[in-house]
Amino acid sequence: MNVDESQQSFIDSNIWLYRFIINPRDTNAIPKQQIATTIRNSQNILISTQVVNEVCSNLIRKAKFNNAQIQILVEELVFNCDILPVSIETLKSAVKLRAQYLLSF
């Protein structure tokens, strides 16, 4: 697969969570974690502040991450990813896309 390395890729919170949390009932958990790690190691990753919040919240609740682990994770995300704030314009665009493509919000 040829990927334009200058193109940014938005990585949703689920991908990050697959990287850190393995569900023992999920028969595809290990392959999902491997894929998530491969995606994470790619260049030009784009995430939103909402993704950072969702990942941290889930890791605290489900994986029992402590404050030091969350601090390290946030620092790694800031260093390795472009992080976009969720603005009013983003929310308005999301509402339009939701209506147009029947997406969840």
Radius of gyration: 15 Å
Q: pLDDT under 50 segments (min length 5)?
A: none
**What number is the mean pLDDT?**
86
Tell me the major beta sheet.
3 strands, parallel
**Percentage beta strand:** 5-15%
Q: SSE order, as H and E?
A: EHHEHHEH
Side-by-side strand order of the widest sheet: 1-2-3
Number of helices: 5
Number of domains: 1
List the helices and strands and how they pair.
Layout: E1 9-10, H1 13-20, H2 29-40, E2 45-48, H3 49-62, H4 67-80, E3 81-84, H5 88-101
Parallel strand pairs: 1-2, 2-3
Helix pairs in contact: 1-2, 1-3, 3-4
Structure at a glance:
Helices cover 59% and strands 10% of the residues. It is mainly alpha-helical and 105 residues long.
List keywords for this structure.
single chain, 5 helices, 105 residues, mainly alpha, 59% helix, three-stranded parallel sheet
Can you walk through the features of this model?
The protein is mostly helical and about 100 residues long. It has one domain (about 10-100). It is about 60% helix and about 10% strand. The protein is built from 5 helices and 3 strands. The protein has helices at about 15-20, 30-40, 50-60, 65-80, 90-100, and strands spanning about 10, 45-50, 80-85. A 3-stranded parallel beta sheet has the order 1-2-3. Helix 1 (about 15-20) packs across helix 2 and helix 1 (about 15-20) runs parallel beside helix 3 (about 50-60). The longest helix has 14 residues, at about 50-60. The protein is globular, with a radius of gyration of 15 Å. The model has no long low-confidence stretch (mean pLDDT about 85).
